[in-house]
Amino acid sequence: MSSSVRNRYTPETVSAPGETLAEVLESRGMTQAELARRAGTTPKNVNEIIAGKAPITPSTALQLERVLGIPASFWNARESHYREALVRAAEQQRLRAHAEWLKEIPVREMAKRGWIRAFPDKVKQLQELLDFFGVASPERWEELCVREPQASFRRSRAFEAAPGAVSAWLRKGEVEAQQIVCRPFDGTAFRKALADIRALTVATVDKSVPESIRLCADSGVALVFVPELPRTRASGATRWLTAAKALIQLSLRYRSDDQLWFSFFHEAGHIVRHGKREVFVEDDTVGDAKEREADEFAADALIPSTQYDQFRRSCDCTEDSIRRFAATLGIAPGIIVGRLQHDKVIKFSQCNALKRGLPWELVWRGARPSSCSA
User: What is the spatial distance between Cα 291 and Cα 343, in angstroms, rounded to a whole number?
Assistant: First the structure.
């Protein structure tokens, strides 16, 4: 949002333009009847304008310009500001009835992260949230950010627990993605980018994250990293912002390289295998057919199934053997550890030294919005 919008001045009260007209007539010693005769209108119309019962129309503004020498633009602006002030006053009254909505949104955490500004006044806080979500009312938020996503974000039960947190997290991802300029989506280019990103899993996060963002953007996919909000329970989401631009959003929920890259390739699987009309958000309860397909895509893209099965049968899965196998595949050893733990080949307490932790601050430095030539 531009600073001019965020910092706009909105006075608490605005006088009716008829009051200004009355002051002008008084200063000139002109009666309402005289103004009506000179302007070619009725005394009743002039009286209703001064009383605030009738608006100053563009034609009336032009008449006032001719009679009083005060530009029509002045009268039109006064009328416009006054009518806007009336609408804003009515909106504030309406918003006061929605104060309970604030309890559904993690306002304090969003403000702490700088996503929104914090206000002690509930109406101003509501207005700030509506600006953030890009909706005109809490009712529209309910319809667009909760009801529709519940239908289109397949399987996720995160909405059942905290729809306000999930919708805020998703909206932040959308806002971040708007800052990434992408080429039109190209499926072939995206598959090639996935192969290059797979090779980046061995690199440090300060290299792999910005390079992955660039590779995705070059093929029409905005890759963003947004830390989860409390009670979000989502590790990733995939959706199409336009027919030519997809979005992959990751939360780094578990802060380890195996989870990062599996989550990324899982979301990429949705883009490669599933339709542009569908939207996906992943949590710990996912289990439908398309989620299993995305899981299979990620697993095989990172560790080809034939080589993985051979490795499982031929070794005792020590740290040294995992390192050697990872080197032959050209991927980070932590990814293999995560796969072996998930498949219950080794215990979750084993080989964790091969995983790399991902401090959020380091990831964020590498994930600053980037762009590519359109």
Answer: 17
The CA-atom distances, in angstroms, between 271 and each of 247, 252, 304 are 9, 19, 19
268-289 per-position pLDDT tens digit: 999 999 878 777 877 665 567 8
Which one-letter DSSP state was computed for residue 352? G
Write down the residue that tokens 């805020």 correspond to. 168
- Angle CA 336–337–340, to nearest 5: 85
d(CA 24, CA 18): 10
Q: Cα–Cα distance between 52 and 131 in angstroms, integer?
A: 31
49-93 per-position pLDDT tens digit? 999 999 999 999 999 999 999 999 999 999 999 999 998 888 888
For the chain, strand residue ranges (E) read 153-154, 221-225, 236-242, 245-250, 279-282
> What is the C-alpha radius of gyration for the chain, rounded to an integer number of angstroms?
30
Q: Token pair of 348, please? A: 């979750």
Coil/strand/helix, residue 282: strand
Asked if residues 116 and 128 have their Cβ atoms less than 8 Å apart, the reply is: yes
Q: What share of the chain is helix, strand, coil (3-state, %, to 5)?
A: 60, 5, 30
Name residue, tokens 């200004």: 20
Within the chain, all domains assigned CATH 1.10.260.40 are found at 17-96
Q: Is 243 exposed, middle or buried (0-12, 13-18, 19+ CB in 10 A)?
A: exposed
- Cα separation, 218 vs 205, in Å, equals 20
Residue 250 backbone dihedrals phi, psi, to 5 degrees:
-120, 145
Query: How far is the C-alpha of 227 from the C-alpha of 359, rounded, in Å?
Result: 11
Phi, psi torsion values for 13, nearest 5 degrees = -135, 145
Under 8 Å between Cβ of 75 and 56: yes
Q: What is the number of helices (H) and of strands (E) in the chain?
A: 20, 5
Q: For the domain 17-96, what is the CATH code?
A: 1.10.260.40
Tell me if residue 56 falls in helix, strand or coil: coil
Nearest Cα to Cα of residue 12 among 72, 94, 92, 75: 92
Length of the chain: 374
pTM of the model: 0.80
